[in-house]
Amino acid sequence: MTHALQLHPDRLFPTEARSRALARALYATVRDLPIVSPHGHTDPRWFSDNQAFPDPATLLIVPDHYIYRMLYSQGIALERLGIPRRDGAPVERDSRAVWRLFAANYHLFRGTPTRLWLDHVLGEVFGFDRRLGPDTADACYDHIAERLGRPEFRPRALFERFNIEVLATTESPLDPLAEHDKLARSNWRGRVVTAFRPDPVVDPEFEGFAENLAELGRLTGRDTRRWEDYLAALADRRRYFMARGATSTDHGHPSALTADLAPAACRALFAKVVAGACSAEEAELFRGQMLTEMARMSLEDGLVMQIHPGSFRNHNPALFRAFGRDKGADIPTRTDYVRALKPLLDRFGNEARLSLIVFTLDETSYARELAPLAGHYPALKLGPAWWFHDSPEGMRRFRQRVTETAGFYNTVGFNDDTRAFLSIPARHDVARRIDCGFLAELVADHRLEEDEAFALAPELAHGLAKRAYKL
Q: Fewer beta carbons below 10 Å: N end or C end of the chain?
């Protein structure tokens, strides 16, 4: 049986009538505001080359680990979804077959944010009016494929249609940023900037670390086996990124540990790192020292610093060996912030010129640690609900647990942090609806005046992110 695709205009708003009515009114003022996407992982080549997207499966399924981690959890091999293997072994190449498999299992996403995003993409972006399932798989595939051949569905046209004011990609310090240079030479007015992600050259346990360190030296002409030259090389690459629009750095460490060692201790630790002779504990200490070094550099060059800690990366070693990073096998862990961040905050926490944005995958830390820290230190702000918590309930919990202590202005609005370009407007729409509902309920509880809610709504949707990321 075929069902119509329903995108209810009141979705995600409060159920109580007065709050729902106010949420509607608030949402009407922010629905069409430009999108500031200050952190994400879209491919800059899409915008520099502006070629048509190849087909529905390659566009919507292959790059999106939110989709295939759910399918994998139900026993569907990644090879059947067309996910490339590291060894080049055969995988499904028939995009229609991949799409049919996905459509046959679309019911698995009921109640998830992925379902909200995908329904928005299918209905709002592509104008498909039937619910995806095995009986509509081919019709939906053909509908999307036909539209992908039109000029108005090329990346730059969609960027403009989505009303994206600025979008940040994320690149390694070893990336030459050729696509960003190509964009700068074009006459397109869309703003796509890069962000500096130094993990491959600051994490001794990152695969290929020794080779990465050597490449950093080659790029900068510095001896990256010496501590002072290594730091100077990182500062060089930061300036290179800034010249190509970067306003932020990003750090995906296993924990939030920071350290502030004496110079001699830094040199001794770095010598072990370079020799490949450091223990797991020393690797963690080195990462912690590098967060403090990055904060020092941010104070000097003005780049906003983001810390995304608390993920056990590549938890499934067999999947990692076969397919590599970012294949849906990263798992949240308990994360300490009060003690972990103290060395960095002891040194720089009182610096109002430093912008340090901290995220978490450990929701238990919101009220106990992160909100009190952000509610005190001038340097510290809270990133929005992230990754596994980038969801309606996750966003509500974030606002409920941090607002009373940190307020709204020690948070930084919303960022989508996605590889799935077409889901960006859907994700921002969910965030705007949830925030408008939260504000409406504060008004209903007489904790906020209505005019204040109307002043806050555009800040949460647009203003806070733009200012926090210096965009």
A: N
